[in-house]
Write a structure and sequence with these properties.
alpha/beta; Rossmann fold; six-stranded mixed sheet; four-stranded antiparallel sheet; 10 strands; disordered C terminus
């Protein structure tokens, strides 16, 4: 028999309470290496608590968690060397340029060639043209992409993205989605927490729904869809979504083209 591959993340029976208030009531899930796993839930469901425990920022009350082959309780140093965490708000220095932010982190992590590392990541996240600009001039999506790029310095095998597109406009969200997809394509394991259904649908190989402290469903998008009755086939006129309208007007680069702008008849 072929041995089953060891998951990048394994969580079993995880429990956590805050002052008698149970937040996690026994959470179980595995994340395959090189995949994107979405932990979906409403505000207060416990998503960030899970991420804090997996990144060793918080101790569980019960249960076990293993990340990149290390136990979060007994091998915290190994976990920290193997993961990177990007929170809900971009942790970048606005006074520095994008490249300077990357070089600084590379130096703090004692990499041999911080300049080359910075240039490679600027190219990887389509920020080369903005690399010499101060981050204070960046859009929200650019800051978020820079934040994710900074978290990849040192090539951690596992990255946690805690609601990475909160507060971003539609085009910036798509830019971040593309960056996340590239991470998985290059072998990084991504655990993504989100409250946006479309985000989980666009990105995740597997989706787990966290509700009232427990995982109530865990599967691929196709498996989750099979839980509902077959859809009725009806022929209706399909209207474009607001997102499709927005992107058609502003264009993929965020600038409205002349052909996309509505015209006004001045003769009337």
């Amino acid at each position: 028999m072929t041995a089953q591959p060891v998951p990048a993340i394994r969580v079993q029976g995880l429990k956590k309470s805050y002052q008698q208030l149970p937040v996690l009531r026994g959470v179980d899930f595995d994340v395959a290496r090189g995949s994107i796993f979405a932990l979906l839930g409403s505000n207060g469901a416990g998503k960030t608590t899970v991420v804090k425990i997996l990144s060793t920022l918080l101790a569980p009350d019960a249960g076990t968690a293993n990340v990149a082959g290390f136990d979060v309780a007994t091998q915290a140093t190994g976990v920290r060397r193997s993961v990177s965490l990007t929170g809900q708000f971009a942790a970048v220095d606005e006074i520095l340029t994008g490249r300077e932010n990357l070089v600084l982190v590379a130096r703090l992590r004692h990499l041999k060639n911080p300049g080359r590392t910075a240039d490679d990541l600027l190219d990887r996240f389509s920020l080369t043209d903005a690399g010499a600009r101060r981050v204070s001039t960046y859009s929200g999506g650019m800051r978020r992409r820079l934040d994710i790029a900074m978290s990849l310095i040192g090539n951690p095998p596992v990255i946690f993205l805690d609601e990475p597109t909160t507060g971003l406009d539609p085009q910036a969200r798509i830019d971040v989605w593309q960056a996340v997809k590239k991470l998985a394509e290059q072998g990084t394991t991504v655990l993504l927490t989100t409250q946006y259904l479309d985000e989980a649908e666009q990105l995740a190989d597997r989706i787990a729904i966290l509700h009232e402290g427990r995982i109530i469903v865990n599967g691929t998008l196709a498996e989750l869809r099979q839980m509902l009755p077959p859809a009725k086939v009806e022929y209706v006129e399909k209207q474009p979504t607001l997102e499709e309208v927005f992107l058609a007007i502003v264009g993929a680069d965020g600038r409205a083209g002349d052909e996309a702008r509505p015209t006004v008849d001045t003769d009337q």
